[in-house]
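[recover] target loaded
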């Protein structure tokens, strides 16, 4: 089969009845886990029903979320949030919810990136630079550990030295100052 893209380089995924999704770019059948990985990598894709041509991307993304939520790790979507979301269906404000949620997630993502950049920049020219890099990698590993289905991260090495503890306390104080300035 021929690879299919639209003008924006969106990968077309065909969903056949009783079959796995078919990636027209790689000419192979894939799983929902592959689509979740593509999403995390920022790859744009569109899922279409192979028989009708209908865009079913929304349904497939919802299915991926449900599978991620059911993997046994701590759910990302709290029960109260889900109840509030369900209560909004049929409400006069329903049309505004998608835009609000999208803007909120964009803001959250920007704040995360700004925090990461600030922490990295705060110690770039200081003796704490290496410690900051280590701590940032531990922070990222901890954040990944909270993602459902993420592989367990290796344990942080045990420093056991008074100097490193003092350096970490000093670094923490500097981070607090930096975060307060950002706020």
């Amino acid at each position: 089969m021929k690879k299919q893209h639209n003008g924006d380089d969106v990968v077309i995924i065909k969903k056949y009845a009783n079959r796995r999704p078919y990636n027209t770019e790689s000419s192979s059948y894939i799983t929902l886990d592959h689509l979740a990985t593509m999403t995390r990598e920022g790859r744009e894709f569109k899922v279409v029903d192979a028989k009708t041509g209908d865009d079913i991307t929304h349904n497939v993304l919802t299915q991926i979320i449900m599978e991620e939520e059911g993997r046994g790790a701590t759910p990302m979507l709290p029960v109260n949030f889900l109840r509030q979301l369900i209560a909004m269906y049929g409400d006069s404000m329903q049309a505004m919810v998608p835009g609000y949620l999208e803007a909120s997630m964009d803001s959250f993502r920007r704040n995360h990136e700004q925090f990461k950049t600030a922490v990295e920049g705060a110690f770039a020219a200081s003796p704490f630079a290496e410690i900051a890099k280590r701590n940032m990698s531990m922070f990222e590993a901890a954040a990944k550990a909270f993602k459902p289905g993420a592989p367990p991260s290796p344990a942080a090495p045990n420093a056991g030295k008074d100097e490193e503890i003092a350096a970490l306390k000093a670094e923490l104080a500097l981070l607090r100052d930096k975060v307060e300035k950002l706020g």
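[recover] notes: The CA atoms of residues 12 and 46 lie 5 Å apart.
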